[in-house]
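We now fix the convention by which a protein and its fold are recorded. The integers have meaning only within a learned vocabulary of local backbone shapes. A record is reproduced here so that you can trace the correspondence yourselves:
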Amino acid sequence: MKKSLVAVILCICFSYPILPAGLDLQMNALRFGEGRTVKVNMVPTSRASESQMKVQVKYEEGQQRIELEYKDLKPAVLFGGDITCYVLWAINRDGAAQNLGELWVRPDSDKEKVLFSTGLRNFALLVTAESYYQISEPSELVVFQNSAEADPPVGSDPLVFSSFGPAASYGVEDLSSVRYDGKKPLDLLQAETVLRIARGMKAEEYAPQLFDQASISLEQATHMFERSVKKGTQRYARSSVAASNEAISLTQRKVMLEELENRIAARQSQMESLEARASQAEQSLQAAQQKNQELAAKASESEARLAEAASSLERVRTERTAAESAIAELLSRQKSLQASMKDLEVEKTDLQSKLQSALSMVADTRESARGLIVSLPDILFDVGEATLRPEASMALAKMAGILLIMSDLNVRVEGHTDSTGSPSFNLRLSERRAESVFDLLASQGIASSRIKTVGYGIERPVADNSTAEGRRKNRRVELIVAEGVIAEG
């Protein structure tokens, strides 16, 4: 049965669960050793039967480097519903899933290579379709998994994986017959869908800054699409997807903390209620004892009431003890979560220091409110040209190596010129030079969603254009490196 995505989108309200609950997936955890490269056989499910995937695993610097190559794999957004992306998972022998990152399938490319890494030594590989890529549990919408076959052969351990997360909604069972005939680019459609999911999770309330960044990037992508600027549409759409995912992740953490605090408050309220009931029971017991003394003639009836009151008091005390234990456990979890957030801040500061040290060995760097600024002088380009010289390519390749390791960092490339020549020529020259840096970083494996370029021409001089030295300083390309969406200076 053939369906276009346009029809699928119109029927999203009739989406059905991905797979029956309680799915048990038979898998094989391969034993990857050190000092060798292993080619892994990846098997598609019926949902992606027309697709092919090759994986090569190589041990380097304490990590298993995973090079994934796919062919004829259609973008996940074509499933419709809430599905927007693919995620690669490493499953260890105990059945624990590790999110290795988004497998971004470019709509305009039927063949692509993507790089991942993990510290695990023995693991199975799984590719699933998800609502967003910063997710902690794989969905049951499986499109690829590895077999026990490898080249050269390696040992394997069979495992049964059943720790799937909540099912998302989708519009089609498989992509074999789906042909997208809509005018809107799939990258733009993905950005709209993820932003809609973030809005549904109340990210606008819990993570307003990230949500606004995602919204602004989506507006910019839409504007680029209306102007038929393909590359700009894709860049801004990917930027919106990244900001939406960050907003979703922050929202989930805040909601978790909020729910924990509410549960603590509820337990405390229950504790107060139990204490009131205990006090009431004690009063009843005292009244029963007093009445038992006064009504010696009715000893049998009084003793029964006394026993009932004592039993009630014991039950209340037992419930109060259980409530105290539950509150202590919740307070401990709250303290652990707060300590974890502090550790993340310390780790972030340490990483920023290491990043500045590493980048300073490649080019001149300085700190700013927007992030680390790496300055490339005009001598790295021929006069009036945007083609990078070899020495510039080597410096940027080293920088790309650093960015590959620190995958949570993004880059804003800003081109500047002196006042020689017309403003329109200088503006275009600065844009072309920034785009040359973008192309080289992308060729080194840096995802284009992590890079934004802009040219300012003569608008932002740092020295006097009336002198040769001043003009030399003004002819420059600056790279701002930071997390999230990097603001304009």
Observations:
- The radius of gyration is 30 Å.
- The CA atoms of residues 199 and 211 lie 8 Å apart.
